[in-house]
Amino acid sequence: MYRSKRTGAAVVEFAIVAPLFFLLVFGMIEYGRMVMVQQVITNASREGARRAVLDGATTSEVVAAVEEFLEQASVSGGNLEIRVSPDPPGSASNGDPVGVTISVPFSDVSWMPSPMYLGGTTLEAKTVMRREGIK
C-alpha cells in the first residue's frame, strides 16, 4: 500500500537530477575538446617553428607546414590565424629568435553547436626557436 503512493517519485527525482547531470557531461566534453585543441595547436606551432628556423625558410612554407599538421589532426577554423615573426623568417640572423603563433576562437573548433562555457575563448599557442644557419 505504501509503494502505490510513490509511483511518480522516480520521475520527479530524475527531473531534478537530469539537468545537473547533463550540464556536467556537456561541460566535460567541452573542456576535454579545449584541452585537445590546445595541445594540437601547440604541436602545430612547434612544427611551424622547426620549419621556420631552417636556412632559406619562407613564410608560405611555414604556414603550409602548420596547416598540414592541423588538417591531419582535423582541427580547422574559419578564423584560424597563423603569424610568423619575423616575416619572412629567413630575414632573421643566425641565432635570432623566430616565432610562430597560432590562434583560433574556441567556438570555431568546438564539437558543441553553441559552447556553453568557453564560447568566447580564443586558444593561442606560441613557439619560439633560434634561427639556424650556416654562415
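^ that was protein a. below is b, sequence first then the C-alpha cells
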Amino acid sequence: MTSAHLPVGRLGATSIDCPNPAELADFYAALLGMRRLVETPDGGVVAITDGAAILAMMRVDPYVAPTWPAGDQPQQMHLDVSVDDLDRAIAAAEGLGARQAAGQPQPALWRVMLDPAGHPFCLTTVGAA
C-alpha cells in the first residue's frame, strides 16, 4: 500500500443535531445498549458508546426536524438498526419514545421510525445476525 492510499484517520463518532442532547442520548443509549461516554459542561454535546462505536448528540438552536421521506426538510442523517424480530423491535422502540413514520417504502424489509427529535432511523432484519 502506498502512502497515497493510507487513511488519514478513522471514524471517531457519528454526530446528530438535536434540540436536547441529554434526552436524545438517553433514547439511543436504551435503543442500542450504549452508555454515556462524555457530556460537555453546558450539556450541548452528549456522547454515548458501546465500547466500539460512538454516537454524539449536539444541540442546535433553532432545530428543525427532518420531514423525510416527504416534505421540504431533508433527512440530516439516519441509522439502520439490525434486529432479529421486526415487530418486537418496533414495539420496544415505541416504548422508548419512537414513532413510526407515515411513509414506509419497504415495510417487509425495514421500518422507518422517528426518534424523539424527529430524526428517521430504520429497524431492519436485513443484515441481522
